[in-house]
C-alpha cells in the first residue's frame, strides 16, 4: 500500500516499529535510548513528483504501487502539503482543456514551502516552444491573480524554460529564530519541513556549549550550517552540487550570517586536502590551519561515509552524524565506535508510512583514544 491509501491511525504503530528496529540496530554500539521525533501524520511533504496519465479526454496524476507496480490514480495526496493538494486540482482543471499544455505531458513536480510559495515543473516528451511558454504564462498569471505565489518551469529533453525563477524561499523558525532557506527546483532539500525543524533543534541541543569551529561535510543549501553557526566561532562547510552551493551563499547573505564559509568540493576531495594528498585551487584563499575544529558534522548520502572519510572524522573530538540510512550508519559506527562513544541518538520520522528512517548520533571521543 502507498501512503495516500493508509489510514492515519496506523502511524503510531509504524513509528513504534521503527523505534524498536533502530534500538535493535544500535545495541552493538551501546547507544542510549533514542529520542523520537514524530512527523505530522498527514500533509507533511513539501515536495512531490507525479506521473501524468492520459485517458482519452481525461488527465490525472498517478503513482505506482512499489510492490505490485499497479497504477494508482491520485486526486488527493495525503502526505502532500495542503498547497500541493490545492495545486494538484488547479493544475488538472486548467491543463485538461489546453492542448498546448497537455500534449505529451509526462510528469508534474511540486515544490512548496510553509510560507506559501510554490514551483510547479511540467515535464514533457516533446519540444517546448514560444507557444507553450505563452500558454503556460497565461495559466501562471491566472493562478497568481487568485492569490497563489507560484512559479512555472517547463522541462523537455535538453530544455528548461523558466518563466520567472526556479526557486522558492522557505522560512523556518528554529529555536526562536526565523531562517530563510532558498530551495532550488530539482535540487535536494529536506522533504518534511516539520521534521527538518526537529532535526535542526536537536543538532543545536547536541552542540550547546561547543568550543571552537565547526567543520561540515555535505552541507547542501546550508540547512544545518545556518542553524548551527550561532554555536561556533566559524563554520567551514563543503558541498559538491553547484545549485546547492549557490543557494547556500544566498542563504548566508539573506540571514546576515558572517561566520560561515562554503567550499564547493566533495567530502572525498576535502579528505584528500586535509591529508595533504592533493592541493586544490578552491582552497587557496582558505587557511585550513587557522580553524580550530573540535566538532565535525556529516550528513552523507545513503551510501554513508567512505573509508578514508571515516578515518578522517575520527580525528575530531565530537562527531555529529545525520543519516538517511541506518544500515550504512552502522557500517560506519563499526569503525567510529572504536574511538568514540555514542552520547545521543535520535530517530527523525521524515518518511511516515515507509520503512525509511532518518537518525542522528552524537559521538564523543573516548579518553583512551586521545
What does this structure look like?
The protein contains 10 helices and 17 strands. The relative contact order is 0.12. By secondary structure, the protein is of the alpha/beta class. The strands form 3 sheets. The protein has an 8-stranded mixed β-sheet, with helices on both faces. A 7-stranded mixed β-sheet has the order 4-3-2-5-6-7-8, covered by helices on one side. The chain is globular and about 70 Å long. The protein has helices spanning 11-26, 82-95, 99-102, 130-145, 193-206, 223-228, 242-254, 267-274, 307-313, 326-336; strands spanning 35-37, 47-55, 58-64, 71-74, 105-112, 117-124, 149-156, 159-162, 167-174, 177-184, 213-217, 235-239, 260-264, 293-298, 318-323, 340-348, 358-365. It has 2 domains: 3-41 and 192-369, Rossmann fold, CATH 3.40.50.150; 47-168, OB fold (Dihydrolipoamide Acetyltransferase, E2P) (Beta Barrel), CATH 2.40.50.
Amino acid at each position: 500500500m502507498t501512503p495516500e491509501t493508509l489510514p492515519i491511525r496506523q502511524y503510531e504503530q509504524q513509528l513504534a516499529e521503527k523505534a524498536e528496529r533502530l534500538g535493535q540496530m544500535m545495541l552493538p554500539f551501546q547507544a542510549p535510548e533514542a529520542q523520537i521525533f514524530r512527523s505530522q501524520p498527514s500533509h507533511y511533504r513539501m515536495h512531490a513528483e507525479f506521473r501524468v496519465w492520459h485517458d482519452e479526454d481525461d488527465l490525472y496524476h498517478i503513482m505506482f504501487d512499489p510492490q505490485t507496480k499497479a497504477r494508482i490514480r491520485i486526486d488527493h495526496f495525503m502526505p502532500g502539503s495542503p498547497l500541493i493538494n490545492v495545486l494538484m486540482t488547479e493544475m488538472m482543471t486548467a491543463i485538461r482543456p489546453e492542448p498546448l499544455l497537455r500534449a505529451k505531458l509526462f510528469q508534474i513536480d511540486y515544490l512548496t514551502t510553509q510560507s506559501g510559495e510554490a514551483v510547479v515543473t511540467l515535464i514533457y516528451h516533446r519540444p517546448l516552444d514560444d507557444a507553450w511558454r505563452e500558454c503556460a504564462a497565461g495559466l501562471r498569471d491566472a493562478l497568481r491573480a487568485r492569490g497563489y505565489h507560484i512559479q512555472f518551469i517547463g522541462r523537455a529533453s535538453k530544455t528548461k524554460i523558466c518563466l520567472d525563477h526556479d526557486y522558492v524561499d522557505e522560512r523556518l523558525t528554529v529555536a526562536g529564530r526565523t531562517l530563510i532557506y532558498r530551495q532550488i527546483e530539482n535540487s535536494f532539500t529536506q522533504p518534511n519541513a516539520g521534521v527538518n525543524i526537529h532535526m535542526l533543534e536537536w543538532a543545536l541541543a547536541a552542540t550547546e556549549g561547543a568550543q571552537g569551529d565547526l567543520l561540515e561535510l555535505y552541507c547542501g543549501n546550508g540547512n544545518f550550517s545556518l542553524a548551527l553557526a550561532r554555536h561556533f566561532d566559524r563554520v567551514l562547510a563543503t558541498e559538491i552540487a553547484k545549485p546547492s552551493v549557490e543557494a547556500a551563499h544566498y542563504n548566508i547573505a539573506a540571514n546576515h550570517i558572517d561566520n560561515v564559509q562554503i567550499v564547493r568540493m566533495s567530502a572525498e576531495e576535502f579528505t584528500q586536502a586535509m591529508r595533504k594528498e592533493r592541493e586544490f585551487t578552491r582552497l587557496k584563499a582558505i587557511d585550513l590551519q587557522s580553524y580550530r575544529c573540535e566538532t565535525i558534522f556529516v550528513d552523507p548520502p545513503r551510501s554513508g561515509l567512505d573509508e578514508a572519510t571515516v578515518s578522517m572524522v575520527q580525528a575530531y573530538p565530537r562527531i555529529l552524524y545525520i543519516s538517511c540510512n541506518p544500515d550504512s550508519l552502522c557500517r560506519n559506527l563499526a569503525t567510529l565506535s572504536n574511538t568514540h562513544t555514542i552520547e545521543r541518538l535520535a530517530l527523525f520520522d521524515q518518511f511516515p508510512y515507509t520503512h525509511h528512517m532518518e537518525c542522528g548520533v552524537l559521538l564523543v571521543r573516548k579518553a583512551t583514544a586521545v
